[in-house]
Amino acid sequence: MPQITVDYSHPVEDAFDVDGFTRVLHETVVDIAAAKPEACKTLIRYDCLSAYGYDDRADEGHALVHVTIGLLPGRTEETKARLTEATVELLRKHIAPQDGVTVHASAEVRELDASYRKLEW
């Protein structure tokens, strides 16, 4: 915990400072949600086959970025909202603008289900 997933699409792969974003996101999660640094784990997934509205996928005028942060229960709604807002702002800072590309960035903080288990070996 926290379990973080970052999904992002073409054409921002060269404009997205994923390493810088991940580092600062972990610091933000520690600061806002009182997580331990060593507990922050992020899975980063790049997708080259996303679609936006009725646009042709080959258009390349839109990029989708979504961050999901899964936390153990116990954070207030205010804390989760602060973390979500901070995450979206970090995306803005770590994705360079590109002419002709609209970035659709979003984030959510959710509670991990009671069935959540973790194993390390």
From TrEMBL:
InterPro entries: 5-COMe_2-OHmuconate_Isoase, Tautomerase/MIF_sf. Its EC number is 5.3.3.10. Signal peptide: none annotated. Keywords: Isomerase. The keyword Mitochondrion does not apply. GO terms for molecular function: 5-carboxymethyl-2-hydroxymuconate delta-isomerase activity. The keyword Glycoprotein does not apply. Pfam families: CHMI. PANTHER family: 4-HYDROXYPHENYLACETATE CATABOLISM PROTEIN. This is 5-carboxymethyl-2-hydroxymuconate isomerase.
